[in-house]
Amino acid sequence: MPDISLTMLIVLCLAAGAAGWIDAVVGGGGLLMLPALLLGLPHVPAAHILGTNKAVAIVGTSGAAVTYVRKAPVNVKTAVRIGLAALAGSMTGAFFAAGISSAVLRPVILVVLLGVAAFVMFKPAFGTGTSGQPVTRARTVTAIVLVGGGIGLYDGLFGPGTGTFLVLALTAVLHLDLVTASATAKIVNVCTNVGALAMFAYQGNVMWQLAAIMAVFNLAGGLIGARMALSKGSEFVRGVLLVVVFSLVAKLAFDQWNA
Q1: pTM for this model (two decimals)
Q2: 191-217 exposure pattern, b = at least 16 Cβ within 10 A, e = fewer
Q3: Of 94, 119, 168, 234, whose CA is between 20 and 30 Å from 243?
Q4: What secondary structure letter does DSSP report for 135?
C-alpha cells in the first residue's frame, strides 16, 4: 500500500462508500471514486489507480447484485448473457482504445447524455413500470448484442457512465422498470468487472491492501443503495439517475474544456 495519511485514507473510504451507493442505485459510482483515487494518490501510476478502482468496485457491485437478485424480479439468465456479451465488447474496446482519441468521443457522448436527460425529464413515465408484455426473443437478442456488446465496447474504449447507460438501455429495450433495470445492470457490471480485474491483477496493477480497506465501505454503500432502491421504487431511482447524468455531463464538459 502506498504511503498515505490517515485523513486521506478516511476520505478515500468515504468516497468508496458513496460510490457504492450511487452504483447500486443507478450506476456511475466511478465518477466519484476514480477522481478521488487520482487526486488522493497523485504519484501512483494510472494503471494502479484503475486496477485498484476495479478491485474496490467489484465488491460493492457484487453485493448489490446479490441483494437485487434476492428481492427483485431479475431474469438472471438473460442478465448473464448480456454480461458475457459486454465482457467481450469491453475486451474488444480495450484492444482498440489506444488508437482512438477521447477528445473525439467526448462531444458525441455529451450530446447523447443531454438527449438522455431531456428524454427522462420530459417522459416522467419512463421506467416507472413494465409494459406488461412478455419480452420477445428479438428484444432479448437486441439486448445481448446492442446493449451488452455495444455498451461493453464503449466501456473498453472510454468508460465514464457505463452503468448509467446500461440502466437506460435495458429499460428501453426490455421494457423494464428502473429498479429491475438497475438490478440487471449490476449483474452485467459484475461480468465486465471480473474480466477487467483479472487483466489488471495479471499485470500486477492492483494495490490490494488499499483496495481491501476501501472495499468494505464500497460494499456497505452498495448494500444500502440496493435496499433503498428496492424500497423507494422507480421514482427514487429516476431522481438519482438525473443527478448522475447531469454530473457526468458536467465532468465531460470540464474535461473537454481543459483538453
Answers
A1: 0.77
A2: bbbbbbbeebeeeebbbeebbebbbbb
A3: 94
A4: P
